[in-house]
Design goal:
By secondary structure, this protein is of the alpha+beta class. It is about 35% helix and about 30% strand. The chain has eleven helices and 20 strands. Strands 5, 6, 12, 13, 14, 15, 16, 17 and 20 form a nine-stranded mixed beta sheet that branches. Strands 1, 2, 8, 9, 10, 11, 18 and 19 form an eight-stranded mixed beta sheet that branches. A three-stranded antiparallel beta sheet has the order 3-7-4. A hairpin with a 2-residue loop joins strand 13 (about 205-215) and strand 14. Helix 1 (about 15-30) packs parallel to helix 4 (about 115-130). The protein is globular, with a radius of gyration of 22 Å. The two termini are about 40 Å apart.
Length: about 400
Amino acid sequence: MPEATSLDVLVAGGGYVGLSLAVAVKKAAPHLAVEVVDGAPEHAWKKEERASAIVAAARNLLDVLGVWSEIAVEAEPIRRMVITDSRTADPVRPVFLTFDDTGSDEDGQPFAHMIPNRAMIGSLLRQADALGIPVRWSTSATDFKTGQHSTQVSLSDGSEVGTRLLVACDGARSKLRDMAGIKTVRFDYGQSGIVTTVEHERPHDGTAEEHFLPAGPFATLPLTGNRSSLVWSERTEDAKRLVDGDDLVFEEELERRFGHKLGSLKVVGGRRAFPLGLTLARAFVAPRFALAGDAAHGIHPISGQGLNLGFKDVAALAETIVEADRLGLDIGALSVLERYETWRRFDTVRMGITTDVLNRLFSNDVTPLRVLRDVGLGLVDRLPGLKSYFIRQAKGTAGSGHPRMLVGRRI
């Protein structure tokens, strides 16, 4: 068996959350030994076709990490958000709520951008390489034993790693979370999110739309050029039928929901469906162990905040690690890691509850509820102060006490 490596931080998961955390820690504390392992093949991320909405706070973090200027070339600003509530067959979809350029932040930037996931991961990998962070692909953590001063992690290639802190960024079905004995609160919505990309005849002008339909929200999000990313929620059995079925049927059903306002449509990306549910870890930390990203929380995409919650985890955990190291504290000690859990737990639970309530309120065709929610949307649209509050919350920078990177400051 190869000799065990000794690390300060081992990150299990080479997605945007895991890579961002590794880069954030190494950039602020170059003397710390940081490594990333991921069970996926080395170039699997290049096949990623999805895109994500990045709010202002996450953009600040990516800027501090030194990757935003590269990513920005492929980013499309969201300058307007339109919300409607209707049935699929309705000939007219009344607009109940709009957010426009009044949502731009103080430096004139839009409150959010759409970014291809492939561009984001590629840029983070290049930054990791520049900082000397090893990224080991086709290698996953299969077991670990926590000791007083370090954790011994067994890897799928037969090697062992000793680390002061193991961070699980291995997704919503995290095996490391289960190994750590951390329980979850979990609900299955009976919905799946269909994700694809379309080209359209006319420009979207930076407008994102969310149509609340009885089966779930149908969101169109602007990409560069005359393209949009779709996040289409359907009942699981219907989503499977649409994804596995005939191309013509899929495009016809898509057109019924998308409408004709942007001219003719053409599907230009693969189509995939992902089960939707709510997953919240009952704890975010254990001795020499922390959860981040989807391993800590999985929420409904109705608010577009899933990835942004992960970036908030990165900012809070990196700052916790670096500040503890500067004070000469043990970065894997439970007393240190509890600061991270305290920092993130309330916000995560609040967002999980909010998305759960919104999905249950809008994913139905019950007339009294339709009237109630439409009146509520209309009131928000007519109250500029309340609308501005929701925009600040969506940006992720409202209030005080945020980790430094979320407001554009180095650790």
